[in-house]
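Exercise 7. Predict the joint structure of the components listed below.
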Amino acid sequence: MSTSITGHSAVDELPGPDGREPLAGDAAGTGRLADRVFGGAATGAGLLVVALVALVGTFLIIQAVPALLNNNVNFLTSREWVPGGAEPRFGIVDLLWATVVSSVIAMLIAVPLGVAVALFITQYSPSWLARPAATVIDLLAAVPSIVYGFWGLNIAGQYVEPVAIFLQKTLGWLPFFESAGISAKSTLFFAGIILAIMILPIITAISREVFAQVPSTHKEGALALGATQWEMIRTAVLPFGKPGVISGAMLGLGRALGETLAVMILLSGLSDSAPWSWSIFNGGATFASKIALNAGEFDTPQKTGAYIAAGLVLFILTFIVNAIARVIIERRKAFIE
Amino acid sequence: MKTTRLAQLASLAVVGSMALAACGSDNTTGTTSAEGSSSSASASESAATECFSGTLTGEGSSAQKNAIEEAIASYTEACKDAKISYNATGSGAGVKQFIAGQVNFGGSDSALKKEGKDGAKSEVDQAAEMCGSPAWNIPMVTGPVAIAYNVKGIDKLTLTPNVAADIFAGKITTWNDAAIAEVNKGVTLPATPIKVFFRSDESGTTDNFTKWLHAAAPEKWTQDPGKKWTGSGEGKPQNAGVSEGVKSTDGGVSYVEWSYAKDNKLGMALIDNGGGAVELTSESVGKAVEAAKADGEGNDLRLELDYATKEAGAYPILLVTYELVCSKGKDAEKQKAIKAFLKHFASADVQKSLEEIGYAPLPKAMEDKVLTAIDAIS
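Solution:
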């Protein structure tokens, strides 16, 4: 029985012996007390989580709606962010841009790197090295994000500066690479690099798990047909692991989108008068960093509501990304199984 | 295998959180709590300090964090049964928590507001409602704001409000601009580009700095002063972030609390409001506090600072942080405790000790007023 990372296997898709839906229990209880208590407790736990999420969502919406109604500019298309005062004006364009750009940069670096590391650990490395290597990568996940922030600012930043300057010089004619006059260690580009390091362990760990589960019959079959190691990986390991890699990437993306402290420490804020720039060497603030930056000054419900509304957008963004990932995984599954 | 990995993870987490705690010294969200543990307090000191036993909680302004920590440390050294904690979460949070009755006293960079915002009740009314009596703003710590710069080749720099406004609005872009040379005769200025850094979080420092710009250079700085920066430049979080930015950038300039400019060994500009260039010292700041107008009634000591003051020798850019207290509290014991602690805080010795960590002591006249107000708390 082959089990994919999605938790479904081919067997799961078949109808049960007496014509029941796949995976449906026969609902036969023994009628014993322990049975009923356990069933009830499990149902209760499930309902509790759903209720919690619903209540949190309701609370957020209740807080955000009055602030949004008070807004004097379009929340979705304005670049201004003046959430307080008698005439609040706030929009999310800049926040959305900074969040998406830094996360995309992080994904561009972390996904190929994470998959490569996972392939090395599961397919290439000798077994005495595989375990320590995996542990070391996992340890990256245990470093608090504020440490990443300070490390980036005080140590890593200076080494990225020449790279950034080189890119600006050679590719500066492209709007994405033009210089925006922000210190090299405070740009979206550098924040993306640090985010990549932060999400690397998530992507690696999940990819590793799926690659390790590739049935050896698949691999041996490929090798028996004359495939080289790399051809075997390409034809057997990667297709099998794809849904898992996508799942891992989405978990990583979720972290990158919501990362707060490291980004707050690294990214330079922009002044209100700064012109719009497409450059990845610009500063800015992500949803999460903006909220964290100003959390100490939530002095009116109006202001709090504006920030909560921004938080809601982040929530919806993450939800959409996850939904897309689900769709891709489901399609993939239909194809390979 | 499983346990070893877990242990490794745990040890790393411990190291990480230690590093976090180390970084927390200049982070505003740190909680300060001190407990009397030392027995080395001299007899004379403990005699002079009125002690209470129990706990006292405060929350608010991060600008006075280091000052209040110092005061708490010296107080609890003398009074071992007292436990005082101050959570430096920012002025806004301090006012909110004080009004909600969550803490015994609040700390804020600005006095409680008399006008309500966004249709809500004013802070003064809300605080009075919570206390059951008027709440008082007691000025306790004065924190001057330095214009800190890091330019190779400039050791001494004088700025007038007009020139500073142009620099911080991004209109003057190099250090050898004619306008800067005009007020710095005899100084050779390099052609380094000016890099302005500002506070990307809302802050009382920004508020006070823009109040000065707005008051002293009204034609140049037309924006309304506020906690949110409206000039140009590159934003950094907290005093620590801003000073790090200036320190690591040749040509960098920003406005930071005095202690951060001193600790990072940044150059500090002399300010010429029209009465001659004034260096930032305790005396020049004290002079400006003395020149401030009292704005409250009786023992409510809210101050109205004259940022445009032309008085010779008065350094005009400063913020006064207040302790927010109930004049008559519902809990008599707590009020006594607040009284004892604030009395210690306002005493000349403690105020003097604040100078080393970047604050200016209250001038004598103000100290007397503050002590009178504290005595009237019941």
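Discussion. The first strand of chain B starts at residue 31 and ends at 35.
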